Amino acid sequence: MNVVQRVGNNSEQRASGKAALLSGAQVRSFTMIGILLLVWIVFQFLTSGLFLSPRNLTNLSGQVAITAILAAGIVMVMVPAYIDLSIGATVSFCAVIAAMSSSKFGFSVPSVIAITMLAGLVMGLWHGVWVAILRVPAFIVTLASLLAVRGLALVVTSSETMSPQADLLVISDTTIPAIPTAILLFVLWIGLVYVQLREYRAQTGAGVQASALSVVGLPAIFTGVLVVATIAIAGSYRGMPLPVVLLLCVMIVVGGLLRLSAFGRRLYAIGGNRQAAALAGINIMRNTLVVFIGMGLLYGLAGLVLVSRLASAPPNAGNGMELNVIAAAVIGGTSLLGGRGTVSGAVIGAVLMESLNNGMSLMNLSSAYQSIAVGLVLLVAVYADIRGRGVKLLGE
Question: What pLDDT was estimated at residue 286?
């Protein structure tokens, strides 16, 4: 068996078997979508119709964008069986860098964006050097950064909230009108259908029994409905927020790397069986370094969206963010044991997590209840992941 094959796809069909209508990943995805729709219906009832209003859904999309951008990155980190606990601190620090560059030093918006992205890249490189080259466990490295970077943010701001200049708020305030939104989403939908069709032809060409409905039809139908709903919501309110466009770009880049590139196949191989991947000639150190550098760039991007959305940069703004991001990825089917995970699943998980937070906020419930919900959802998701992998629990 070639270890560079995607180890995480545990629904792969054998040539002699009968094609399944739905793959295991699709079953998980549709289950999550069903739960999400149920949550939306419940909150729609509990908030007297406010939750599904175009205004709130647009506001929710801005909340989702930050979590989902980082969830896409954490999938890339977790597939080769690493973890990143520093997300809240590093994103908050990037937001502080953006605010200071804008207000204290007076840099232009393009310069602020470049500086913030560079700051995120440096932190990602720092993690990569410790994990890939010095071989310190990612858990320890990122936990250390969680503490150190949080303290660094307090030092550089003197524990005060930084506020950027008004021109930086364009990142969150800009919306794309309905017609350009429709064109953009339609083009992306065509691209998705094309990719799915290529995958179906590749499977059948390799002698794998694949269902056209499963591989092409259902994804095309579901995303088509989502595109139409998004266009309708964008057209009835202000349009599509720019952070959502940035999220779509991240999904295309990260999802494409994981699903369509040799780099992605190597990451799945590393997460599935690190020793076998090394014996197959995969450079684990180099691939690990690239993963953490990529995650660093997403720190910077999320930091820019965060400071623009809040119109300020409190040094402790990202407290607990790492839990939401990891929970979103695990809920979406990414395994804590490595070798399995998709960007689309993580984004669905992010929508679920932020829907819970948004709905409870509309009900005027305190943040304590939101923390309880996040903790319980994460616990259930990890349990489902362990059971799904067939791992025996202690005492069994």
Answer: 95
Per-residue pLDDT, 222: 82
* Global pTM exceeds 0.70: yes
For residue 75, being part of any structural domain is answered with yes
> Which residue is associated with the tokens 């370094």?
289
Kindly report, residue by residue over 26-40, the tens digit of the pLDDT.
677 777 788 888 889
49 phi/psi in degrees, rounded to 5: 85, 0
- Residue 275 has which token pair? 């020793």
Give the chain's domain count: 1
303 in any annotated domain: yes
pLDDT of the residue at 210: 72
- Report if residue 286 sits inside a domain: yes
Nearest-CA neighbor of 25 among 346, 376, 361? 346
Lowest-confidence segment of 177-186, 363-372, 377-386 by average pLDDT:
377-386
Residue 145 is part of which domain span? 53-177+239-318
In our burial notation (b when 16+ CB lie closer than 10 A, e otherwise), range 363-375 reads eeeeeeebeebbe
Residue 28 counted as domain residue: no
